[in-house]
Amino acid sequence: AGELPLAGRRVVVSAGGTREPLDPVRFLGNRSSGKQGFALAEVAAARGAEVVLVAANSSLPAPAGVKVVPVETALELESAVTDAARDADVVVMAAAVADFRPATYVDTKIKKSHDPGDPDAAPTIELVRNPDILAGLVRDRGDEANPVIVGFAAETGDASGSVLDHGRDKLVRKGSDLLVVNEVGVDRTFGADDNTVHILRQGSSHVVDVGPATKHDVAAAVWDAVQEIL
Ligand code: C5P
């Protein structure tokens, strides 16, 4: 029997969507289901890799043979991914990471109004930036070839450029080896079972178009592209 293509490789996949708490009962979140990241972890394990799946707020079952590290916030996801990335051959950032978090966390439930003189007052939520985890991984790697780093991007075409134009700009800006560009629009991608993506490679004009395909088939195409780099 031939050896599995990812045998002996350590891979890290992030999945799901981060939640940024405001108080014990409320958070800022997003609609990521985690399905694409879980499919990536499942396919990597089936191809023989040792897989750590850093899963943000997903209720999906752990894929066979995959170590799941559950996290909630962007900062927790950053620390779990950076830890696991230290001895990894590949890091795939499929999670939807909140760009901002509330500047302060209040450890008691925020009341409708604090002001007895103005019972209709509403609070203002101040936000601060979260770190760009993908950019941090690229920065920390320096001139090393390891790990191979894969980013995801949800893009829509608009007057300033097509989905692919925006994807190419983002690939150069982020500095990852691959960027998987998701075409998003009304009723597309979030929570859906299938996906249309374009896989872009740093320094190459070649594009791999995938789909509409299941998230499992998209995952297989992403690992095929990673295997070409390894
Ligand atoms: O810039 P944008 O959010 O479109 O980039 C998406 C890519 O960057 C994804 O791979 C996502 O996991 C990653 N990301 C990150 N940290 C953030 C925001 C996005 O690693 N704060």
Notes on the protein architecture:
This protein is an alpha/beta fold. It is 26% helix and 29% strand. It contains 5 helices and 12 strands. It has helices spanning 35-46, 74-85, 133-141, 163-174, 215-229, and strands at residues 10-16, 20-23, 26-28, 50-56, 66-71, 90-93, 100-102, 127-129, 148-155, 178-183, 194-201, 207-214. The strands form 3 sheets. It has an 8-stranded mixed beta sheet with strand order 5-4-1-6-9-10-11-12, with helices on both faces. Strands 2-3 form a two-stranded antiparallel sheet. A hairpin with a 2-residue loop joins strand 2 and strand 3 (26-28). Helix 1 (35-46) packs across helix 5 (215-229). The protein starts with 9 loop residues before the first strand and ends with a helix. The relative contact order is 0.16. The mean pLDDT is 93. The site of cytidine-5'-monophosphate has 12 residues, from helix 3 and strand 9.
Question: What is the compact description of this entry?
Answer:
With 230 residues, the protein is α/β, with parallel strands linked by helices.
